[in-house]
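Example record used in the benchmark description.
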Amino acid sequence: MKETIDLLGKILTNILTALYEPFGFSLLFSFLAMFFYLYAYESIGTGKGWKIAMMTWYQKFKEDVFFRKLFFLAFVTSLILFRTLLNRQNPLSDVMGDWGIWETVNGEQKLTTECIENVIMMVPFSAVVMWTFGEKIGNGWKKILRYSGKIAFIFSVSIEMLQLLMRLGTFQLSDIFYNTVGGVLGDVCYCGTMKARKRL
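Model output (structure tokens):
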């Protein structure tokens, strides 16, 4: 029982730390990313000063559901990128990674929650991607799960390759596997939520 409580406590602490540290940066990044989106697709208020630009951003956020979804997707994506790329070093120290919740250090077994955290990290990302682009993908369970698996796999491989090329983080095959599992679970949550909403 104590081991289970320790495990849950460690997971919760790591998740809250991962959310707390980059929260301000991710919010600012998302805000600026959506300015870039407005400039590219809604360039009506361009060149009329920062007050008009701020008002245009606010109006778009208030009125357009897709704009809010994109903002939230940019926020979740930047949280993941901060956690996986900007805070790490030594990319090839452990290529295979951890495949379980126990690791042996100096002949002693220690609890590690990295695999569980990798799954949890991708759940909101994948769910938000489907929430944002679900109408374009379609409603079938198999189609959504196939797309979500592909998106989570490609996103995870991209992160791991960037870690390798930029010498940030630790390139691990287990991360790719657990992130893909988390992506599929996120879409199971999305599908379940959408089905429950339709029934209500």
